[in-house]
Every structure is written in structure tokens, then in C-alpha cells.
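[Solved] Which block belongs to which protein?

Original post:
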Amino acid sequence: MSTLSFIVSASLRSIYFTAMCTCAAIAHAQNPALIGYWHNWNDFSAPYVELDQVDPRYNVIEVAFAEPAAGTTYDMQFTPSLTAPATFIAQVAAHQAAGHKVLISIGGANATVQLNSDVERDQFVASMLTIIDAYGFDGIDLDLEGASVSITGGTIAAPVDARIVRLIDAVQAISSQFEVANGHAMMLTMAPETAFVQGGQGAFGGIWGAYLPIIEALRDQLDILHVQLYNSGSMYGIDGNIYAQGTADFIVSQTEAVIQGFSTGGGFFNGLQPEQVAVALPACVSAAGGGYTDTATVRAAMEYLLGEGPQPGSYTLEQSGGYPAFRGMMTWSVNWDAVAACNGANSYAENYERIFGDITTSVDAAISSTFIISPNPAHDALHFASPVHGPITIRDLSGRIVHHMQEEGPQQLVDVHLLSPGNYLLEVTGFPKLRFVKD
């Protein structure tokens, strides 16, 4: 079992997390995660935002985009458009110092990425590694749309399309070389459209289900899948019914589909762990062509998914009690979320904070003190680096108290061996809640 410690710097409102790990793998991003795309361009309606001005509740930032050089579909390029590279590099580092992750997103709606030969695959790998190294990114996001990804046959487990196979090989090569260079694993996220994933229930070919072989091949490296639950037609749920975007039923049904898995013409797609899945929605109406969902509906859907609220529509979760370890929320985009006239400044981040409580990054810069526990995941006991005083409470993710210590004297450990495996919240007087895992 690996040992993982969390340093928690507490402020009056919430907390920062910084992970330190003695093993080869690290905790790539906070759980819960608030993921936001950052525009590398200026738009009158959603202006350019300096990276260091992004709302600090966003703890995973996807920089949009690395795109192919003109005349190619594989030679990737990225330069910050309105920020000096040296300044941008410093801004990335500042986010990382605060415990955030900053990734470079590949593709987007306007860029076709295709690897049509082994030479193109190798140049894709080399150019992406150059970008990652130059700016210090923590990993990559695959936002491949349109003609970038399609299938003509094969199965989820055994793809036959050379472009798909080369893409899988390329991501594995980038991941492997990143780990050699940095001493820890690369973070990998994906942002497919619904047709490329859940759409595989209705058809398997062309764009329909085309991301499923990629997800399957990379599932062990994949940190977060956030399927775009917008700009979408209606989709099947795993109950066989059809649901429309912009509703709580759409959020819940499409999310559970990628956790539970589903049948396709290319075989059964085995679902992902809840910790690998986030809900992805536009920050406001203007941010997408369709699929905006008001904050109250989003909150109702999320609380039902987390097992913390009632059923908000007609879709019934297959797993009673929901998914307390669910990873979080993504939005397109931090720029749109910052526009006050859009839906109120940073309303998506505020809704995330309401949903997940104070297990989030701080909007206060002040740091009052430090509190360290290890190991995390824990087996028998959690150890405190320095003595704590007063009561200690452990809750499950539904808020139910499962352990309480009332002792007033100094304490340096808490016995957790009787707890069932799962995710818990630790409450210590004077500090906000801290999430830990019992293995």
C-alpha cells in the first residue's frame, strides 16, 4: 500500500490541498474536482482572462487548445495569444503551487487531429511533449470532435481503424515519456461529445461510439472523463428510455451510463469508476448552442447522483444511494463563467461550491495554519503530524457521523479500522473538513 499525505492550509472559508506522495503514482487532482476550460483567444462576449485571474475554485484548468500547424493534422502547436510565454509559465506554476492542475487540451471543435501514418504519430508525440515541457503542463486533455475520431468496424476492445490505434499508441507514449521525465504519472482527461460515447447505444460506426475504444484502451491512465452534456441531441439512458439535454434526467441518465456501462454493436462498454467521471455543462446559455441547465436543476441532479438528494425527474438511478465518490463538475468555460452579464459572475463555480460544500479550493488567500494526516488511503489509523486538541468527527459522504472522539487532550491518531472501505470526511476543531479514503 502506498503512503499519501495531504497538507491542508486552512482559511476561514475553505481549504487548499497539496499532495505529497512517496510512490510512483500521485493524486492527480482533487476530489471533488472543478474543471474549467480556459480560452486562448479574446472574444467580445467572453473576454480573454489572464490565467492567474481564473476563479480559484477551479482546481483543474484545461488550456484550450493545442492545434495542428497549418497544413497538418498532427504537428501540434501552442502559444499563449495575449500573454508573454514567460508570464504564462509563471501563472501555470502559481496554480500548481496552490494545488491546482493545468492541462493542455488537444483539438477542440475547430481543429481536426488525425494520425495518418506512423511518422505523423511520432511527430504528434514529439510536438505534444515539447509543448508540455515548455509550459510545465500536468498532462493532456483529449477534446477531439468532428472528423478527428470515427470508426469503420472492429470492437471496443479490438479497434481496427489505424487512426484510432495510432492515437491510443500516441497517448500511451506521451504518458510513458512524461512519467520518465517527471517521476510521476501524467494527468489525462477526455471531453467527448455524447454521440461519441453514449451514442454507441444506438449505433456503432462513424462518430457513434467512436471514443469508446479510446476510453477502453486508456482506462487505466484516465483520470477524468467529462462527456459534453450539451450541443447534443436526445440520448438513450441505460433504462432504454430517451432523454433530452438541458434536464436533470439527461445529466443523471448520461452520467450513470458511463459508470454502469452499456451494450453496443461493438461489444459491451465496461463502465468507469465514479472517481473517473465528472458532469460537463456550459456555464451559461451563450456558452453553447444547447444544453444549458439552470443552477437549481444542476444542483438537484448532482445531489441525486451523489446520494444526497431526492430523485429530480423520471430517471431512477440503477445504483441505490448514488455515487458519493463521484469526481466533480466541468464547464465550458472559465471565461464564460466570469462574465457577469451571462449568468452572474462565477455562478457555475458558486453552484459547485454549494453542491460539494467546503471540500474545495479557497477563495481566500490567507493561510492560518497547517494540518497534516497520513496515510491516505488509510488502513487502520490516521496519524497527525502534530498533536490536535478537541473533538474529532468522521462523517460519510451523506453527512452521517460514523466515528466521534470527544477527548480534550492532545491526540496524534484516530482509529479507523472499523470503518468500511470508502470515502470519508474528517472534522477537527479549527479546520475545515478533509476528505480521506479508507481502503
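(Second protein starts here: sequence line, then its C-alpha cells.)
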Amino acid sequence: MQPDPALSGEAAHFRALEQLYAAAPINRLFDSVLEIPSAGVARIRFTIHPDVFHAGGAAHGTSYFKMLDDAAFYAANSLVTDRFLLTTAFNLLLTKPLRAGPVVAEGRWVSGHRRVFVAEARLIDAEGDEAARGTGTFMRSQMPLATLPGYRVA
């Protein structure tokens, strides 16, 4: 996907982060799409497939963690235009088994502006029920966003 030359500033940063997400090799393993509608907010629409089920017939916790972490991470990184953030801690609460079907991970920035950011996320299943929630802390890294494959600002 080529950047839209009409975009600038905040919107261009959001689209570049969405491209960065799509370019990450790990995301080839997940049927997912990131959207950043506004500063401090990220949404990942994804589908749970039976190939990520544990022996009990529901999604393994790795799927919960990955999507919660990513949604919270991108909500926080939407506020940072120069550096890639790193997850330093993440707490999970799993409340409902996820079966095959569509799920939305909703991430929101909570606090922090300079070096450390706090963001939370929740997973909403196809019935509209919350299946999990998590809170993470994220720290600025030494990696400039502009040097990462996939991050392209118009």
C-alpha cells in the first residue's frame, strides 16, 4: 500500500503505523488488520481460527496476549512520532473463551507523554462480550520509526 500524498501530520503517522503493523513478519500468522482512528486509540479486527485452539477447543492465550498487547501498543505509539515503543510489562485478565470467529481488540492510551506510556486494551467477541482485558507499560526505544521496514510517512 502506497501512502496517500494528501495525508500529513497526525493522519500520515497513523497510516504509517498501520503499514508498520501489516509489514511485521509475525502478522503473517494472524488474520488481522490495524486501524488507528484517532490519537491514543487503536483497533485491531481479527479472526480466530481453529488452528490457534488449545486442547480444550478455544483460542490459546497467546492469541489473547498478542492482540491485547498490539492494540495497547499502537494506541500508545500513535502519540509518539519519532521512536518505536517497547512493551516493558503487560497484565492480562482472561474472562471468556474465544471460539472461531471475528474479534476486535480495542486499545486506549491511559497516561504518559515522554518516556513511559500506559495503555489498556480489551477483546470484544462477535456477541459483543468482553473476553479479555489488559494493561501495559511501554517505553521509548532507541529505534527511530523512520528506519523500520513498513513505516512510511507520505
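Accepted answer:
You had them paired correctly. Confirming on the second one: Helices lie at 9-23, 61-77.
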